[in-house]
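Interim report, section 4.2 (structural modelling).
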Amino acid sequence: MTLILAICVAVTFAVSIYLMTARELKSIAMGVFLLGHAANLSIIAMSRTPVRHEPQLLKGPPILNASFNPAQPMSQIVDPLPQALILTAIVIGFAVMAFLLSLLVITSRKTGTLSVEVLAREGVEE
Amino acid sequence: MNLSNLIILFIVIPMGTGVLGVLFKYQVGLMRVLGSLSLASTALLAVGLLIHLRSHETGILVTQMGAWPAPYGISVVFDSLSGLLLAASSLVALGCYVHSFSTVSAAAQARYFHPMVQLLMFGVNLAFLTGDLFNLFVSFEIMLMASYCLLTFGGTRLQMTQAYKYVLLNLVGSTIFVIGAGLVYGMTGTLNFADLARFVAERQALGEDLPTGFTALSIALLLVFGLKGAIFPLWFWLPDTYYTANVSIAGLFAGMLTKVGIYAIARTFPMIFAHGGSEATKVVMPILAISAAFTMFLGVLGAVSHHNIRRILAVHVISQVGYMVFGLALMTQIALAGCLFYMIQHMVVKSCLFLCCGIIERHTGTDDLDRSGGLLRRDWYLALVFFIAAMSLVGLPPLSGFFGKLVIIREGWDTRWWLSIFGLLTGALTLLSMLKIWSYCFWSPQAAAVERPAGESPPPGSMRPAYAGATLLVLVALFLGFGAQPVYEIAFRAGEQLADPRDYITAVLGPESLDHLAGRDLRSPAELAAAARREATP
Amino acid sequence: MTISSPVLRNSMRLILPLTLLYALFAMLKGHNEPGGGFIGGMIFATAVCTYRMSHGYAAQLRLLPIHPRILIFLGLGLALGTSAVPLLLGHPFLRSAVGEFHLPFTHHPFHYASAMAFDLGVMLVVVGVAVGMITQLSEELE
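Predicted structure of the assembly:
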């Protein structure tokens, strides 16, 4: 399972970096979104059973209370924290994506282009 | 009411005001009053808590969100470092916010300007208060999201051609931050700063190695924070970004954004990633020292070479960030205190200079040095404010910049004398670039008035708020200069808390969290050496 | 952007109520299982936006007659209010009250937490943001 995840992370990173080397803002934006997904995947790959968390402390959180079974071996419990991190990162990524897409729409309307070269040249001229 | 629950107000007040700003989108006058009240009240609260905590035993207030115990929940920590930065950032934001009433028209302010300013402050305050690495990421994102919106505020063509650089660069930085936070959790099983500090101090005290890859991880995080803080070689995004934004917003950014990156280094590196004699420390410290030298020196060279007020001021931000990194690179208690003092005085002074630049632009219609002049005769009050702020930036003795530079350079003289020489040289060149603005803008004879290009809207509103904002900041700068003693007392306490993490750990994790270390000294070797030197030279 | 397809138009009449119900279900079950305000809000917003695609903007306004800005305000206000109330009672921020009560004519006790109100706020914000964003962007394109 770790190997599959590792390959997925590697491929996603590679594709996103390839996209980011393009000269069009659209591709770069897609590359950045993919980079976020690759980061989230890599956090999933890192999550495992809670190492340092003693079982008696795990009874505390109400999220676990409903389905927490003390008889279940610790090795079968997945650490909820990385998933919480990823959820937060996804929500933030959603907002950033929305902003970036709107920015691209406005940029193309104001300047008539999304090519990085043209935009860079305009910035120098003004 | 429990005092520690109060510190969450730093987050609740800006967010509540921002929420009201969404509802009262078109009631600009009402929002101006509410927004100023919100910023003023957070500033007062921070100052009040700092004064109250001077007699407090540890000087650290902690609240656990939702009453979940640390390290499982989210801790919010108010110590001397956060307190000073919160007070300074709220005051700076208040000055810039009031200034914006005369540079941003009421029609433009009706386009979610007020919620965005409050959201920026929400993110900045959360960054200063949060007690764990992941929430630091979240607060960075909140702050950056607001800054993207404020940066493109107005939506001119020039802004649109420049905005994408800042946005994309920060997005990549944030992604590295997420991966770094995930790796920290994977290696140590915790994200809480206090728990991480305990983890590192424990390993060091018991003579065990840190996990493999910890060094690489700390370099990755240094990269992220360095990008936000505009440290050499990651500062290239800054001049263009500050150049295109509205001048009040540029002042706000110059005060806040880079400082949050520096704060993140100051919070995490002395206590966690560069704590003790670990492998990471041996790599991180030289990197910080070398980049401090380059940041200081190249930044000020850039400022000397430019011929445009806003660009000079923007590039100067980089040079001054170098002094802060200099303080961090020494990582002793006194150097950290000096770094903190320099940070807060720089926030105030730099924003004040940007606000002055806004008024100059209004007078002359341009920020090109060649086409402005004669302002001393036309506006002596502006000249006075600008002069005080510029000389504070340079660091002339009774003014605030002097005390910041003095402590850092004196502390660096023993261990890294070459950095101190760079610091002195940079100070001289800073004086040169400030005198350039002074002599072109204020002393030279009046240039021909610049015709406003056709189609550009006439500047909105009266200039009174602009003067009020600049005056507020210059008064704060004067207070930091003449009242450096009480501020430094708090700053030294902050340096102590950073160099010796014991108080922080016990405040967050509870008094028994360090019992098994049996009173071992948790200070890092650099700090121990400095303490020995201090005792040797009375 | 309106797609004039009779198949889509007619199937939306079935899909829309089901999706809205499912959104509520996803929001409510988020207390103990995967789900929650964010995902519920996303499903809700998807339903509204698909409805807009099939029936047009006027129909969307009839379905959701509140301005997205007001939705965002209500959601943020609800979330902030719920998390700030414990402050007034002397508890830490975001402290949730948990308990059980009996509904009439039911056998099982009903478990509640004040975090539900927070989740509802999140849902309102997400609906407001997503619908508002799609509306703005499609106005731009039309």
